[in-house]
């Protein structure tokens, strides 16, 4: 587990598809077109992890690259947002996006990770797990059918861990 600096640019959220569900109540006012109390939005992403691992993780050529050294590739993930509208213009919400990827690869160069050296040609298991949680508050200033203007306050919380494991195999007679 890395507790050092981990610079991971999870980029390329390319293809996007979303689904929205809401618990609607009776429409009492013609102006209140979005009359709901609880709304859940979901989305699907195609993630392309890239970046470098810094800190105590180094190779013979510098830092560890997620794509070049560890073979990380694109994968699908999702997001979810629960929005509670407790008054006509006030919302409390929380968004959650998990990024979990693991890969087994054969190293093509020597890597030193947390004081342990992994030699080229060694089969390794590596994983990158990030949980993004964002609670927030939103106040709607202007609400229309074609859009809205609001002010939001959101806190972005990340929990990121990375692991590299390898099992060595001894062949031959070894020392007597």
Textual characterization of the structure:
This protein has 176 residues and is mainly beta. The protein has strands spanning 6-11, 16-24, 36-53, 58-59, 64-65, 75-85, 90-106, 111-113, 116-118, 123-144, 147-154, 157-166. It has one domain (6-24, 34-166). The chain has no helices and twelve strands. The strands form two sheets. Strands 1, 2, 3, 5, 6, 7, 10, 11 and 12 form a nine-stranded antiparallel β-sheet that branches. A three-stranded antiparallel β-sheet has the order 4-8-9, with no helix packed on it. The two termini are 36 Å apart. 13% of the residues are buried.
TL;DR of this structure?
With 176 residues, the chain is mainly beta. It contains no helices and twelve strands.
Amino- and carboxy-terminal Cα gap: 36 Å
What is the general shape?
elongated
- Compute the gyration radius: what is it? 23 Å
Structural class: mainly beta
Q: What's the number of structural domains?
A: 1
Q: What is the H/E string?
A: EEEEEEEEEEEE
Question: Which residues sit in consecutive blocks of at least 5 with pLDDT less than 50?
Answer: 1-28, 172-176
Number of helices in the DSSP assignment: 0
Major sheet description: 9 strands, antiparallel
- Tell me the fraction of residues in β-strands, as a range: over 45%
**Helix proportion:** under 10%
Average predicted confidence as pLDDT: 74
DSSP summary, beta strand count: 12
